[in-house]
Amino acid sequence: MASGILVVCEHEDGAPKKTAYELLSKARSLAAELGGDVSAVVIGSANAANLGEYGASVVYTADGSEFSSDGTGSWASALAAAIVEADPAVVLGAASVDIRSAFPRLAVRIGAGMASDCTDLFIQDGVLIARRPMYAGKAFADVSISSSVALYSVRPNSFPGAAPVGGSATVSPLSVSHSEAELASKIVGVEAPKSETIDLTEANLIVSGGRPVDSSENFDRLIRPLAEALGATVGASRAAVDAGYAPHNEQVGQTGKVVNPSLYIAAAISGAIQHLAGMRTSRVIVAINKNPEAPIFQHATYGIVGDIFEICPLLTEEAKRQGIGR
Amino acid sequence: MKVGVCIKRVPGSDSRINVGDDAQGPDLADVGWEVNPYDSFALEEALQLQESGAASDVVVFTVCGPEGDAKIRDALAIGKRGKCGASKAVRLDDPAFAGSDAIGVARILAAAVKKEGIDMVIAGKQSIDGDSAQVPAMMAEILGWPSVCEVTDLEVDGSAIKAWRAAGSGKREVVALSLPCVITADKGLNTPRYPTLPGIMAAKRKPIEVVDAGALGLDTSTVGASAALVTVAKWSPPPARPQGRILEGDASAVVAELITLLRDEAKVL
Ligand SMILES: Cc1cc2nc3c(=O)[nH]c(=O)nc-3n(C[C@H](O)[C@H](O)[C@H](O)COP(=O)(O)OP(=O)(O)OC[C@H]3O[C@@H](n4cnc5c(N)ncnc54)[C@H](O)[C@@H]3O)c2cc1C
Ligand SMILES: Nc1ncnc2c1ncn2[C@@H]1O[C@H](COP(=O)(O)O)[C@@H](O)[C@H]1O
């Protein structure tokens, strides 16, 4: 009988990502109610053993050379192999590009139902319920899955990552066989970004600029320094991206990234419904806008009615003066 | 190369979605409908492949009732004069399809794609109603084809394909694959065109074939509500946000107050 929770722990250059700790913490509390063990699976070369300190009793590893270069289909095979070994009732992964690519294939392969981009997981009458935004966050659906194994991808920053509990894990290497279709696609190159940044979807602090920033030079002059002073990641509205002031991968919203930070600062962003789609679950929203009627103020925790050309440099100075972001 | 494009009709991105107090699904009676924005990127890419000679034919697929025809016509209307865009649409419609979850929709589309002899499927990365981002990769798995999701650049050279996708931390990965395959389109892939008047006229003459489970040879016990593994138990409106606070006064005082509030009250710095 399938029981327990398997957590897909992603890592960056061998170090587990914040999402791995978030999911392990949540898995521990869910397993306490549902019964069964928490196990983890790590794909590629990473420090797997220390995940035991965060509650995983077994860490399954898939560390063949194919995993150093290929993240499209073969993840599904590795995860399928881990599921055979762990026999879990629940599989959790972060809503990352690799999971978004692999989980649907995995779902078909093992006959599992899947819920995407969940923002909460809880137990009701003994059944695991996933709460997930639909219609770009205009409605929330409580979803249940009837298959014996169920897959959930979870929006980053949905759960706090707990401190280590001090256990130790058995590390168990998987033997993975790949389907021909998977081997037919291969990552042949990685283009590095201009600067090393935290991915927007995982960022805890975000400063976004809108169309009135008016040029990429002004993004460099107003928005990026403020983000740097706060230790934040830069985002942008679609209007700013389409005008060429910021790159596509910085767009937040319906046709951009969906973000879930503790703090989202919207600088000269009107708060169009498609922008809200990408950031409305942010814990604290700050709006800086010179129009007191701008819709963004209806969603803001704190608002400043003012001109970004005046406010942003002052904020940057003040953040530096108070030693924020250090 | 024959390219299939998957298109879904969804409530417009600017529509208000109201969830009733009875926790039932959203009331969609008054929403305006659009082609899912990501599907517009998919269609545009297919049409560009056709115009460059890489694709011989483009066929549009949708799982929908007759209410979808207006949006299908919009899709059929896009393209250059002379090279007139998608040649036809296939609307997959059967009472047995009602209530399908993502795997069900993927089974229906995969069967249709096979029947039409498609070599490459381009779909949207995500539908903006269900927001599931599952159907295309599921379709690829059912077909036994490779898939690349969230593609922002595509190169086709005969049957050799290169697809660029955003990985974490601002990186971009280049994935090489061969036909047949499934690609999902992200914003940035291209700039979709709008239908033109001659295109709209031409689209009126293009066929919309309606295909049911029988014609697909699909076992109806594998689709529809009874086969769905994922069900919505309850709906709710987005959680209400606490009343916000507008900070007033001299700019430098307000800025200092904001930093203090973020650090000491909200505890986010
Ligand atoms: C299908 C579809 C998908 C979309 N997807 C997205 C998406 O993913 N993300 C997204 O952001 N948008 C998206 N949009 C676009 C969205 O509808 C808005 O057009 C866009 O968000 C507006 O960007 P903005 O707020 O930067 O610009 P504007 O609408 O121009 O607003 C600028 C705001 O700044 C204020 N302002 C002006 N000057 C100053 C100043 N000096 N100081 C302070 N405040 C100032 C103004 O009062 C105004 O509120 C989408 C639209 C569609 C149709
Ligand atoms: N009912 C449908 N008909 C045609 N294509 C669909 C349908 N549902 C999903 N798709 C395709 O799959 C993509 C992702 O959808 P989803 O998995 O629902 O988020 C969409 O952008 C469409 O290209």
SSE blueprint:
The complex is a heterodimer of chains A (326) and B (269).
Chain A: E1 5-8, E2 11-12, E3 15-16, H1 18-34, E4 38-43, E5 58-62, H2 66-69, H3 74-86, E6 90-94, H4 97-110, E7 113-118, E8 120-124, E9 127-134, E10 139-145, E11 150-154, E12 170-173, H5 180-183, E13 185-191, E14 205-209, H6 216-230, E15 233-236, H7 238-242, E16 263-267, H8 273-279, E17 284-289, E18 302-305, H9 308-321
Parallel strand pairs in A: 1-4, 1-6, 4-5, 5-12, 6-11, 7-11, 14-15, 14-16, 16-17, 17-18
Antiparallel strand pairs in A: 2-3, 8-9, 9-10
Helix pairs in contact in A: 3-4, 6-9
Chain B: E1 2-6, E2 9-11, E3 18-19, E4 26-27, E5 33-35, H1 37-51, E6 57-63, H2 69-76, E7 88-92, H3 102-115, E8 120-124, H4 135-143, E9 147-157, E10 160-166, E11 172-178, E12 181-185, H5 197-204, E13 208-211, H6 213-216, E14 230-236, E15 245-247, H7 251-265
Parallel strand pairs in B: 1-6, 1-8, 6-7, 7-13, 8-12, 9-12
Antiparallel strand pairs in B: 2-5, 3-4, 9-10, 10-11
Helix pairs in contact in B: 2-5, 3-4
The structure holds flavin-adenine dinucleotide and adenosine monophosphate.
What would you say this structure looks like, in words?
The complex is a heterodimer of chains A (326) and B (269). Helix content of chain A is 29%, strand content 28%. By secondary structure, chain A is of the alpha/beta class. Chain A has 2 domains: 5-173, HUPs (Rossmann fold), CATH 3.40.50; 200-322, TPP-binding domain (Rossmann fold). In chain A, the strands form 4 sheets. Chain A has a 7-stranded parallel sheet with strand order 7-11-6-1-4-5-12, with helices on both faces. A 5-stranded parallel sheet of chain A has the order 15-14-16-17-18. In chain A, helix 3 (74-86) crosses helix 4. Chain B folds into 2 domains: 2-227, Rossmann fold (3-Layer(aba) Sandwich), CATH 3.40.50; 241-269, no CATH class. In chain B, 27% of the residues lie in helices and 28% in strands. Chain B has helices at 37-51, 69-76, 102-115, 135-143, 197-204, 213-216, 251-265; strands at residues 2-6, 9-11, 18-19, 26-27, 33-35, 57-63, 88-92, 120-124, 147-157, 160-166, 172-178, 181-185, 208-211, 230-236, 245-247. A 9-stranded mixed sheet of chain B has the order 11-10-9-12-8-1-6-7-13. In chain B, strand 9 and strand 10 (160-166) form a beta hairpin. In chain B, helix 2 (69-76) packs across helix 5 (197-204) and helix 3 packs across helix 4. Chains A and B meet through helix 4, strand 7, strand 9, strand 10 and helix 5 of A and helix 3, helix 4, strand 9, strand 10 and strand 11 of B. Residues 210-212, 237-240, 251-256, 268-270, 272, 274-275, 278, 288-291, 294, 307-309 of chain A line the site of flavin-adenine dinucleotide.
